[in-house]
Amino acid sequence: MTNTQTATAVRTTGVLLMTYGAAKTPEDVPEYLNHVYRGKPPQALIEEFQRRYRLVGGSPLTRITRAQAGALEGLLQREAGPEERYHVEVGMQHAPPFILDGLKTLVEQGCEEIVAIVMSPQYSPIIMGGYRRAIEAARAELPENVEIKIAGTWHTLPSFIEALAGRVRQALEKLPPEEREHVPVILTAHSLPESVVQKEPYYIEQLMETVRAVAAEVGLKDGQWQFAYQSAGHSPEPWLTPDMKDLLPGLRAEGHKNVLMVPVQFLADHLETLYDIDVGAREEAEEVGIGFHRIEMFNTAPEFIRVLAEVVRREQGRSS
Q1: pLDDT in tens, 30-54
Q2: pLDDT tens digits, 232-264
Q3: 315, 150 contact by CB (below 8 A)
Q4: Which residue ranges form the domains of the chain, and what is each CATH number?
């Protein structure tokens, strides 16, 4: 028997974690916003973003996503068979490393099969179509034999719901025992223009499916939790409501002393958590005299990395 006959082929799979991207520092804001707006945005908007970045010390999104990729690669490789290899890279839509950069690196590492995961459990072809367009544009610069599959939604994956519910339980345990069963819990997602949602109504239903599943898993009582939006964009068109900050005065008027914020869409700390929630919403809560709390983001938590691994295996047609 020849060496060729006895040799075992190694299957090398690539995984690309795709995020919207972020400016790392205040100095990076103009270039980042130029890419987002496909041209120079208003100077006032640049200055406002720079103010926010200075206040929170910059965005850790790229660093955290790279760390998530490293943790996922380690987990996949530890649990892989002798004929499997995994490489995980990062691709941003509006900041380096771009999606094309991540794909090229995976190809250089010998990956002919790539699973691309949008780092949002809910998915909309319209709202998140930029990721697909970036991948389609990249194909022209990649070998023809490379297969790229974009992962489907995982907003009700049991392991994800349990992991998110676990974060809620941890936050509730930090509150006084007499308040845990009554504290208002506001589950949030990034707001969107109403015109966009009219074209893609199922995206909102995905968000509500996640919210309802988490509330049920935690055992939140009816009336204790509600859904709201955050981080509305800087444009004059109508955006989805209610905004989380607008709910706070009413909660205080009802006699509540604390509130717990639960982002159900964000998987890492970035400007929308570190400023929009931790600064903006907290200031609003303090103004009306209500204690402010939020869950910790997953970042590189082991239970979340296992969720990502399950998504990869699902797309490969394998069970966990």
Answers
A1: 999 999 999 889 999 999 999 999 9
A2: 988 889 999 999 999 999 999 999 999 999 999
A3: no
A4: 3-154+301-315 (3.40.50.1400), 158-294 (3.40.50.1400)
